Amino acid sequence: MNDLTKQITQWAMARDLHTADPVKQMLKLAEEFGEVAEGMAKNRKGETLDGIGDMYVVLTILALQLDTNIQDCVSLAYQEIKNRKGKLVNGVYVKEEDL
Questions:
Q1: For residue 99, what is the DSSP state?
Q2: Whether 28 contacts 50, CB under 8 Å
Q3: Which of 28, 35, 76, 81 could form a disulfide with 51 if both were Cys (CB 3.0 to 4.6 A apart)?
Q4: Containing H/E element for 6?
Q5: For residue 52, what is the domain's CATH number?
Q6: How many structural domains are present in the chain?
Q7: Which domain holds residue 34?
Q8: What is the pLDDT along the chain (99 residues), one digit of tens a residue?
Q9: Contact at 8 Å (CB) between 93 and 86?
Q10: What is the C-alpha R_g of the chain?
Q11: DSSP-assigned letters across all residues of 10-78
């Protein structure tokens, strides 16, 4: 995954996307999320998978625009959840403190 992320970063930098407005990138993320939601709603696995991949690309570029990287963001998120306890409620994982 690290090599692919590096390729995405190099692709974005070659197109000066790292200097673009992160607000616009956030709007692109919303667009891609909509693609995932539509794929799920219409049971179109290919569209859903493409949208998930597109979201990763967009998030990688957004992190670059915010002067960080996607790996650091994911590491922060994992550190927050790694010891989390909870349970599935109606198919949704609920944190212990929210039960």
A1: -
A2: no
A3: 35
A4: helix 2-14
A5: 1.10.287.1080
A6: 1
A7: 2-98
A8: 799 999 999 999 999 999 999 999 999 999 999 999 999 999 999 999 999 999 999 999 999 999 999 999 999 999 999 999 999 999 999 999 999
A9: yes
A10: 16
A11: HHHHHTTGGGS-HHHHHHHHHHHHHHHHHHHHTT-HHHHHHHHHHHHHHHHHHHHHTTS-HHHHHHHHH
